[in-house]
Fold Nuclease SbcCD subunit D.
Amino acid sequence: MKILHSADWHLGAKLHGQSRESEQQAFLDWFLETLARVQPDILLLAGDIFDTATPPVSAQRQYYHFLYQAAQQCDAIVIIAGNHDSAAFLDAPQALLANMQIYVVGQAPQNAAEAVFALETKNGRAIVAAVPFLRERDIRCTQVGESLADKASAIADGVRQYYQQAAEQAQKLRRGSEPLIALGHLFAAGGKTTDHDGVRDLFVGKLGHLSATIFPQCFDYVALGHLHLPQMVAQNPRIRYSGAPLMMGFGESVSEKHIVQLHFHERQPIIDAITVPVWQKLRQLRGRQETVIAEIEALLNDEAAVWLEIIIEEGVFDSALNARLQDLVANTSVKILRIQQPSTQDFVAALSDTRQLYEPQEVFAQRLEKTPFNDVEKAQLTADFLTILQQVHDAH
């Protein structure tokens, strides 16, 4: 049995205002060709299919066209919602897609057993627990007066219990030695990210960074989404992020992108990576003005098609530099999407001891200490604030 695992497509995403629709379409076309070549039994998509909860029509069209074509190459497709996705939007055509053996779980069912599927393929059977991004309201009720430590522990316990309930159902459905697979979208503790890659903390204050121990050991493979760099979790080859197939920020410009391919030998996953081609090169140029200009001229001489982020690291702010650099690349295949000059860095450095670089709850706690409220009142106000903050976080 062959399985492919991918995630974090972010259809409809832009990079500093630049459309990526043609690049995303090139990936989807390549992926369909890969499906035709590999002929997997099951395709797993671990969330953040779209970049926003209200994806543009063009992104919706790409998604449904891909699913129609992919369903002809796979015996089953399982899709979960990520934190960027609208659970209701993904769930809307659920019944229709199920007729094509495409199983979608957008909103987490109250009963985790309802998110578990026994998939019959031409090469055997597999049990998949499709757990979407779990919002706080899916797994717990806010408690009055709880501390941040209590809140973090409660979130971890809620996620752990949900996966445990799904695992129990998966084990009930097992008839013999078929593999048990979990699909999830979360931030595993110790996971690697890059600057400006669009990866959001899933709960305020990094409370949702979860240990790999939340996954019951009965799962033979855990296919994760959310982090954009392909990686194992806690050095465990059975628990993996496939990573995003496209570079989501300039910090990823030196990383290779993958689709995970696996098959099972007596429930032991044999894992390989399929390298995703690069359709749009990204590059970050750093240094003094003259160094950066020389590097741009070299790219122009090579007729390179590349998008650039420019970071000027020394000197003083030059009001004419942005226009000069844009004129340099005008009517070429080189595009400058972002320019950062020293004044921006100096300004941020000057703010290093101000509230602007604190977490919101830290600012609230500092302000609360200066009020006349007693400890009980402060605890209630903190709980109310964290509830509101999480609601704002979920809405964005």
Notes: The domain at 281-349 is CATH 3.30.160.720 (Double Stranded RNA Binding Domain). Residues 188 and 210 are 5 Å apart (CA to CA). The chain has three domains: 2-275, 281-349, 351-395. Confidence is low (pLDDT under 50) at residues 202-207, 345-357.
